[in-house]
Structures are given as structure tokens and as C-alpha cells.
Design brief:
This protein is mostly helical and 626 residues long. It has 36 helices and no strands.
């Protein structure tokens, strides 16, 4: 018995006697069995002997069934019974208790991968591989990388899986395809030869080998391999089609025609002619007819990557997003590496709300076409929507590196910095935006707002003026300037500013109304009345204008006129409370005034007897004195 086996035996014996000899001593400061079982789990996972592994599992489940180790074993048993959802839940519970169990991460990643939750699966599989290099994890993550066109990474993981599982067919197939897509045809040939040895009856490996010969320019070897294959599989249309394509490339058109016929492909029509028709229909924006033309061309030449891309674009333009997504996905899997195809796929994913997949497609666009500004821009906008401001800033900085003279990129980067609570960098980007484009109204608006917040009133004023210069009807900027002038008690500037605005449209009642407000603020009630009256003449029945006029009459002491106008305002808008309040105050003031006048008149009417001295006798009533 070696040292490791001895250690395993001791742990089994120890865990077996814990329930009988320790009672409830775990709560009294003794060793926690869940800690012990966690150590046992690591040994269990490395134990090849099924009998010993079974004993260790039983001991863990007895000692601490609801600890991380016990839940892991339950999750694994549940997974074996095919209860995927329950197993996923249990693995999550395990990791909530102990994130260091690498096998829990890896097993969860496998299940999530089967469910198509690729993003989360990749994370869990990676965490699993960091602590427990299970070949299944390598194979699963290789599959994900391959589907994402990350063929070099996929190849690495397939090779790692094959170190432990040298005869694993799936890993050999994945490795062979990766070699083809990476252009390593000699290694791809070796991989397919190995597969033919492992599974002699599997025909697709012969076709794969023939495709390698074709792509590496060895057309005679490809024809030889395909004919050998078709000798035993004469009814396979795919084989005949592949042979026809190779013969066409070699220039043997008659032989290719016969193979096309055996493949069931219409070779009477001219694919090039249909392709030209499709292009003409696209130019005329007849997208449905363009789709039909491209599909007809592809019947005569199925392996035509550029035309598949055109078909996908036509389907996108026609609003057939699901068809376009299927076309572009299939095209990319054939090894098509144009960045535009990945970008269009990203747009389709984004349209359907699959933002994680869209992000992945845009990143692949950049890998294959680093200068694609549209992909960077879409990533920046998605990250901004999600609140991932650091990532959004990275994309905008890259856009600025590519197109530093674009004011929009500086503006948007400034907004991102603003939301990151970084006013210094935000101001710098906004200033660059308006320097590059002095008429960038959004840049001036953002600078005005941020300078006002930073208590730099003079700079804010200048940018608000620029906003109004560019858009005279911008009420927000005008109101901000009016407020700024009022707070600084710059009443003359305020009057001039509003008067100039009024002079541009002297028949606008709203402008007269605002001019009246300015005069009212300055307590120049005579001029305020003139402006309010003009506003009411231009827009009769406006309750707010009538209210302002009535209020100003009241302030200037013209009470009867005020009462009349306020009553009109109340009738114009019965829901407006202010006219009634002012009318009530006028009424109360009137009553108080009458009372004061009445008291004064009573005092005047009562005469005093001169020289008569008051005594107790004549000061109080007689009955009181009694």
C-alpha cells in the first residue's frame, strides 16, 4: 500500500467513527467535520479506485451532508440521473458555500454549456480548469471557442483534452477543423488520417481529408479521395457536389457537370448571371427579388462564400432577421473571416436583444478588422447603456485614436466621464468637441451645465449664449441665463437680454409675458402692466397672463382693476388657485380697512367733558361699587 492509499484509508476510518464517538462535541470547540470533509473531497476526486471512492463519498455524506462537499456529491448524483435543472441549482449552492471547489465550477460550466448559456459557461469552465484540469472542461471550452471563431484557443484546449483522452473522437474532429481554419493543412491532414484510423466507417472524415487536399491546392489528391469515397457511397449527394466543385476548379467542366447532376444541382442556369441580377435588385432596393436571385445562383454554386454574404445582407435589408442570422452564422462557420460579416451578425444579435452575443460579434469584428469604427461605436453605446462606463470609455478612446478629429467621439467620451464623476476629464473632452466643431450645440450645452455646477458662472454664461446663438428657441438655455442674471442681481443685463428676445418677435404673447415678469421682478409695475396687457391682447383668455396682470395691479394699488382681472383669470381656469387666493387677500384687506375707518369715526363722535376729574365714584358703574 503506498502513502496516498494509506492516507485515504485513515480518513475513511476517521470519518466512519465520528458519528459514534463524538456525539454533539462539534459545537464545543472540537474539529468541524465539514472542514474535514472538504479535505476529503479533494482526495476523493483524485482517487481512481471506484470502491475507495464510494467509501469516501459515503463518509462525506454521513459526516456533513449539507456542507459544500456533501452538496457537491449530491449535485453530481443528481446530474447522473439527468435532472439538469436540479443539478445546476445544487452546484450553485455548493459555490455559495465554498468557491474554491474547482470541480463544482467545471461541472456547472458543462451543464450551462449544454443549455446554451455560453457566456456564463465560459467563466465557470475557466474557473474549473484553474484548479481541476478535467479534459471534459477543456473539450467544452474548446467547442465554445471554436463556435466563436477563436480557433487558436480552441486548438489549445483540444490538444489539452487529448493529452488525457488520446482517442477522444470529438477532440480530434475539433482539432482537425481548427487546423483547417488556421490554414495549417499538413497538421489537418494528419488529424483526419488519425480519425480515419479511429473510426474507419465514418465517411465524413474522408470528405474532410478531401477538403484539406482541395484547400491546400492538391486537387488531384482531393479528386482521388472523393472518388474512392463515392465508390462505396455512390448515393451521397454531398460527395458528388464536393467532387464537382473540385473538378470545376481544375477546369474539367464536363466531368463537373455530370457530378453536379448526380448531386441534384441545376447546372443549366448560369450562377454568375443570377448573381448579377441579385446585385441589380439590391441596387434598386428590390430586396425580395434579390434574395430569390442569390438563392438561384447558390443552387448552381453552393460553395460561394461572397454570395452567401450578399444573401445575408439582402435578408437583413428585407427585415428577415432570423433568416439573415442563420445565413451569416453558417457562413462564418465555413471560415469566412470578413469583419463586415461579424459586424452585421452583431447588429442582428443587438436587434433581437441578445446583447452578450452582439458584444462577442463586435469584438470578433475588431479582431478581423481592427479599424472598424462602427464596431467600436456599437460596443461603446452598449457598454454605456449597461452602465459599464470603464469599458465604454475604452471604446471611445480607441475611436478617438482612429478618428481624433471627430467631435462626436469627444462629446460622448465627455458624457461617459461625466457619469463616472470625473468632471476634469469630462470638461477636457467637451472643450475638445467644441474646438473641433464650434457649432456643436450639445457640447456647449454640456459645458454650460457642468460649469454652472462647478460655480464658474462666467464660463457657463458664455456657453449658454452659444447655445442660444445656435438655437434661438432653446428655452432651457434662456431660462438658465435669466436665472443666472437674477441671482447675480444683474437686472439691467436681464432686461436687455429679454428685451432683445422680444424685439425678434414683437407679436409673441409669451415674450411680452416674460418681459412683464422681468419688470415685475425689478418692481417697475407700470412697465410690467404694459407688457402683461399686451400679452393678454395677443392671447385673450390666458389665465396665467391675466393672473400676472391682476397681481401687478394689486401691487401697484389699483385694487378695483386687480379684482376685475383676477375674476377673469379665475373664470378662464377654475383649477388655478392663485387668483382666488389673491381675491381673498383683497377682500380681507378691504374688511380690515373698513373696520379701521369705523373705529376712527367712533372716536371722533364721542365728546369729553373738559376739566372733569375722574374719581372712583364716576369712573365705575354704581352697582359695581356697591
Amino acid at each position: 500500500m503506498n502513502c496516498r492509499q494509506s492516507k485515504v484509508s485513515r480518513i475513511v476510518l476517521m470519518l466512519a467513527v465520528i458519528p459514534f464517538c463524538c456525539g454533539f462535541s462539534w459545537g464545543l470547540g472540537k474539529t468541524d467535520p465539514c472542514v474535514e470533509t472538504r479535505t476529503t473531497l479533494d482526495i476523493l476526486l483524485d482517487t481512481p479506485d471506484p470502491v475507495k471512492r464510494s467509501k469516501l463519498e459515503e463518509a462525506v455524506l454521513v459526516a456533513c451532508p449539507n456542507g459544500a462537499a456533501g452538496l457537491f456529491l449530491k449535485a453530481r448524483q443528481t446530474e447522473k440521473t439527468g435532472q439538469t435543472d436540479a443539478a445546476i441549482t445544487l452546484y450553485r449552492e455548493v459555490l455559495a458555500k465554498d468557491t474554491s471547489i474547482a470541480a463544482a465550477h467545471g461541472n456547472l460550466g458543462l451543464l450551462l454549456s449544454e443549455r446554451g448559456l455560453i457566456g456564463e459557461a465560459s467563466v465557470e469552465l475557466t474557473k474549473g480548469l484553474m484548479g481541476y484540469p478535467d479534459p471534459r472542461y477543456h473539450r467544452a471550452i474548446a467547442r465554445i471557442m471554436s463556435n466563436g471563431s477563436l480557433h487558436a484557443l480552441a486548438l489549445f484546449h483540444y490538444n489539452e483534452a487529448l493529452k488525457v483522452l488520446p482517442d477522444d473522437v470529438e477532440s480530434h474532429v475539433g482539432r482537425a477543423k481548427a487546423y483547417v481554419l488556421l490554414g495549417q493543412f499538413a497538421k489537418a491532414e494528419e488529424a483526419f488520417v488519425r480519425l480515419k484510423t479511429l473510426v474507419p466507417t465514418e465517411a465524413k472524415f474522408q470528405l474532410g481529408l478531401a477538403d484539406v487536399y482541395r484547400k491546400s491546392g492538391r486537387l488531384d489528391r482531393a479528386i482521388e479521395e472523393l472518388r474512392f469515397y463515392l465508390h462505396n457511397n455512390s448515393s451521397d449527394r454531398e460527395g458528388h457536389r464536393l467532387l464537382a466543385e473540385v473538378l470545376m476548379e481544375k477546369g474539367e467542366r464536363e466531368a463537373a457537370r455530370n457530378e453536379y447532376l448526380l448531386a441534384g444541382v441545376d447546372v443549366v442556369s448560369n450562377p454568375d448571371e443570377f448573381a448579377r441580377k441579385g446585385d441589380a435588385f439590391m441596387k434598386a432596393r428590390e430586396f425580395g427579388q434579390a434574395i430569390s436571385a442569390y438563392q438561384s445562383a447558390l443552387k448552381g454554386r453552393p460553395v460561394w462564400q461572397e454570395l452567401h454574404y450578399k444573401l445575408g445582407k439582402a435578408q437583413m435589408s428585407a427585415g428577415r432577421d432570423d433568416d439573415a442570422m442563420a445565413t451569416l452564422t453558417a457562413l462564418i462557420k465555413t471560415g469566412f473571416k470578413e469583419g463586415s460579416a461579424f459586424y452585421d451578425l452583431g447588429l442582428l444579435r443587438e436587434r433581437s436583444g441578445q446583447l452578450d452575443e452582439a458584444i462577442s460579434a463586435y469584438r470578433l469584428t475588431i479582431i478581423h478588422e481592427p479599424g472598424n469604427v462602427n464596431a467600436h461605436r456599437r460596443l461603446a453605446e452598449i457598454f454605456t447603456w449597461r452602465g459599464s462606463f470603464d469599458q465604454a470609455a475604452d471604446q471611445y478612446r480607441e475611436l478617438i485614436r482612429l478618428r481624433e478629429d471627430n467631435p462626436l467621439y469627444h462629446l460622448n467620451l465627455g458624457r461617459v466621464y461625466d457619469r463616472m464623476k470625473d468632471p476634469k476629464n469630462a470638461v477636457s473632452e467637451y472643450e475638445t468637441a467644441v474646438r473641433l466643431d464650434p457649432d456643436n450645440i450639445e457640447g456647449h450645452r454640456e459645458l454650460a451645465r457642468i460649469y454652472l455646477r462647478m460655480a464658474q458662472a462666467s464660463k457657463a454664461e458664455q456657453h449658454y449664449k452659444d447655445v442660444i446663438r445656435l438655437h434661438d428657441e432653446d428655452d432651457a438655455a434662456r431660462n438658465a441665463l435669466i436665472t443666472l442674471y437674477f441671482k447675480q442681481r444683474r437686472y439691467d443685463d436681464l432686461t436687455t437680454f429679454v428685451r432683445e428676445w422680444l424685439e425678434k418677435a414683437p407679436d409673441d404673447p409669451q415674450r411680452h409675458y416674460r418681459m412683464g415678469i422681468v419688470y415685475e421682478l425689478k418692481k417697475d409695475y407700470g412697465l410690467a402692466v404694459v407688457e402683461y396687457k399686451k400679452a393678454v391682447e395677443l392671447q385673450p383668455g390666458n389665465a396665467k397672463m391675466l393672473l400676472a396682470l391682476g397681481r401687478t395691479y394689486q401691487k401697484s394699488g389699483r385694487i378695483s382693476e386687480s379684482r376685475k382681472i383676477l375674476e377673469e383669470a379665475s373664470k378662464a381656469d377654475p383649477t388655478l388657485a392663485e387668483p382666488q387666493l389673491l381675491l381673498s387677500s383683497i377682500k380681507s384687506s378691504s374688511k380690515l380697512k373698513k373696520k379701521i375707518i369705523h373705529k376712527k369715526s367712533k372716536r371722533v363722535g364721542k365728546k369729553k367733558v373738559p376739566g372733569k376729574k375722574l374719581t372712583k365714584k364716576n369712573k365705575f358703574p354704581r352697582r359695581v361699587l356697591k
